[in-house]
């Protein structure tokens, strides 16, 4: 496998699928993987043919996070250095913005299909998506403390917002392994399906979103992304112009007509 194969990309009927592809390392991150993932996320967000994004992993894992085997070979994540390298800090920040940052700010709906382990930085990728589908084989773990690292790729920030500060502390400090049902109970998964239904159910959900009103879904995401940083009045000031703009679209006219005619709407593509 070459470095360019570490991430695979497909677009079918408006659904872009990005597959992390190092199954022999449980899709642990490599620099080529991170760089390519960043490129593909930017491309998919800007491509008008893409209406929804699916992120998944090859084989039986989603993403194990940092490549601990490589850390061991290098003498640690810092490569044996005795002081923090400012250039390394800047490069990692760039990588995190390219991936987790881009996923969180993605203007179109995003889905993580999680066939197995999502750990460490890989958990950050999963939690940055809008919706997450798993199976009984899904395992989520923060994993950082187990290898004496404090955490990166936005996991602390994302957990704090998804499960609250108390539970986030538990997950980061104690590093429990959460199975699929536990993830669902904590709202870390949107849906829990059988292992053999993961692909079908992911496609079904992605198709539903791809066939939805694109501008409306984009503006819903904008409202949700901005709301935690605003007062109620500020949030309403942001949402009303978007709501009114959606009210001028052909999609809105079609949806209202379909409601009256008691049929499913057919939105523009």
Automatic annotation (TrEMBL):
GO terms of molecular function? isomerase activity
The answer, when asked if Manganese is one of the entry's keywords, is no
Instruction: Tell me which species this is from.
Output: Dietzia cinnamea
Lineage of source species: Bacteria, Bacillati, Actinomycetota, Actinomycetes, Mycobacteriales
Q: Which UniProt keywords apply?
A: Isomerase
Q: Which protein family is named in the record?
A: Belongs to the enoyl-CoA hydratase/isomerase family.
Pfam families tied to this protein: ECH_1
Which stretch is the leader sequence? Answer: none
Carries keyword Isomerase? Answer: yes
Residues passing through the membrane, by range: none
Against Gene3D superfamilies, the record matches this protein to: 2-enoyl-CoA Hydratase, Chain A, domain 1 (3.90.226.10), Lyase 2-enoyl-coa Hydratase, Chain A, domain 2 (1.10.12.10)
Task: From the Swiss-Prot or TrEMBL record, give the protein name.
Answer: 2-(1,2-epoxy-1,2-dihydrophenyl)acetyl-CoA isomerase
């Amino acid at each position: 496998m070459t470095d360019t194969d570490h991430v695979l990309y497909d677009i079918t009927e408006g659904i872009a699928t990005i597959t992390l592809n190092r199954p022999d390392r449980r899709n642990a991150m490599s620099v080529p993987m991170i760089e390519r993932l960043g490129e593909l996320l930017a491309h998919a967000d800007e491509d008008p043919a893409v209406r929804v994004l699916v992120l998944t992993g090859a084989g039986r894992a989603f993403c194990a996070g940092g490549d601990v085997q490589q850390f061991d070979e290098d003498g640690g994540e810092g490569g044996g250095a005795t002081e923090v390298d400012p250039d390394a800090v800047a490069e990692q920040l760039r990588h995190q913005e390219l991936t987790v940052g881009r996923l969180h700010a993605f203007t179109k709906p995003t889905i993580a299909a999680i066939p197995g382990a999502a750990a460490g930085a890989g958990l950050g990728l999963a939690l940055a998506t809008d919706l997450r589908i798993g199976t009984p084989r899904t395992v989520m773990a923060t994993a950082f403390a187990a290898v004496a690292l404090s955490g990166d790729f936005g996991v602390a920030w994302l957990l704090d917002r998804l499960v609250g500060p108390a539970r986030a502390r538990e997950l980061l400090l104690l590093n429990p392994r959460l199975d699929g049902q536990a993830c669902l109970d904590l709202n870390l998964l949107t849906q829990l399906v059988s292992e053999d239904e993961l692909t079908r159910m992911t496609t079904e959900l992605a198709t539903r979103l791809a066939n939805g009103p694109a501008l409306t879904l984009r503006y819903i995401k904008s409202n949700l992304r901005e709301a935690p940083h605003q007062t109620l009045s500020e949030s309403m000031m942001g949402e009303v112009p978007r709501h009114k703009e959606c009210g001028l679209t052909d999609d809105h006219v079609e949806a209202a007509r379909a409601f009256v005619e008691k049929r499913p709407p057919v939105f523009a593509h």
